[in-house]
């Protein structure tokens, strides 16, 4: 954490912003386009054959000519019109056809010329035409569209305006690029004449383990550049970042006029959203989706929401926007789904940093899951038997933490925290940050412990209790300690509550 910049000069409010915001020289050979008005042209250039290679059936009607039934010859351009010049029009070369007979119904049959020089020239022109046609298909205006969703011109204009606030950042250490991410312009500090950019702490992360609960290494001294949409670059410096939430705010100083996007604190599961990010070439990444009704994997942070993915890693730091164009979350590269941290947590972190110069979050030592995501029969059973229809399921407990010592076990349900009902993990995170905020109002000392009161339903005993945890406050990543625990089995209590429980036993309790 950059303690030397603690609370200094962060005079911005992210929610305040408001935006309205060639040809490829290496074309690949593909089948040429065939105009519907040219029925006489072949689909591809004919094979070169010597006269003596003609079949007996070919020579029966007209020696040396390949038969093709058409009503009239092609009126295409001259054989030399398939020029490889990138600036010339693309025209299919005219096939060298010659009439060789007329059938009883008046249909004229045509065949390719038996002049070898003419056929060689036609073959060369056709190859040039096919290569140029392939290049044309790769132009940004002619390439096939990958989207299946149609938009109105007004919607297109809105997205283009939002994209003006989505940039790309790259970090360098000892002259070598370590990471590239997307950034979102979220604020302007008029007093300092500076621009505020939100991105991911991944931008200067030098150690990136798969497990989000494992310590990472950050090179805060890395040089970070912002790549503008006009292909210019600007230096920026770090204001602050959170190791646990992996968000970072950077500042660009100087008279740089960039539109901003505001952060919206409310996002719901199943909500229609779209994402905006940048790839390594500054091309826009756009995708429409809904916020998925899924929990994180055991190696991912509890506070993530998800949309269908994937995105490239450089898309990390991009924005998840609602239909009104406000940022409801920031993207993280994850597989198989794309994760994002809701904007409500970003706003809470930025507010705490502005007021206190640091973050403070109680570390409970619990990996949690959403009760609402289990199947309806089990929710209905819990509701009918125990009046429980929402809460957070304990998935795993950090070894020797206070929760474990006080009898909380995997499968138990957290019903409330500080007397506030919690039905989602993000709700619990807000309560925890609120506890940290109240502590910082009294003292900046993070060495002391705080009390966190939670209401728990013990699934094995079918009882409820209120437990007060004494836990540490930290502005660092919450590291999870697995200890010597083993997943022993899944058991079914068929007597009173026929539900599936995951039981974790310590080796000393066997």
Automatic annotation (TrEMBL):
<protein>
    <submittedName>
        <fullName>Uncharacterized protein</fullName>
    </submittedName>
</protein>
